Amino acid sequence: MVGGRKRAAAEEGSGPTTRASKAAKTGDGAAAGKSKGGKRGGPKANMAANTFKANALPLHVNITHTPPSVADKNTVPATAADPGSLGSITLVPSVFATGSYGWKGNKRIQVEISNPEGGGEKEKVHVQLTINATVLGSKGAGGDEDKEEKEAEEAKEEAAEEAKENGDGEENAEEAAE
Q: Which long-range contacts (CB under 8 A, 24 or more apart) does 120-126 make?
């Protein structure tokens, strides 16, 4: 029989030759290159969520069929006379359930689309728009007031436990907690 025999691996103990095993290796044996999960260590927001919510102004978004035009001295802005305008959405400052903050808003609009099956007539469809604009790096950013409140509550509980251990009784323990 001719052929059919595989070559020995160049390195001893180097498992199967899959795409991942062919990646460049670093000194500690881990594959070099990008890590899973995308870019880390991006911009960080320093403002606390409550401060952001109290000071941020709403954002306004115009929804239109008309693409934006470059404004010059001789043209009317597209927003002033837009025949393709579908509506606008106001995004309000908000703290999301994930702990990050930004703006959110939603609105229902009607969009007309041509229907070739309906004799060329336009058909109106109802559309739900939801926009979340998250401040990059805002998750867990800044000194959260909620965190401070939790720490103060924990300190009160610890003081109450110490008072009980010292034999001050339940009445004094409650006073120490306050």
A: none
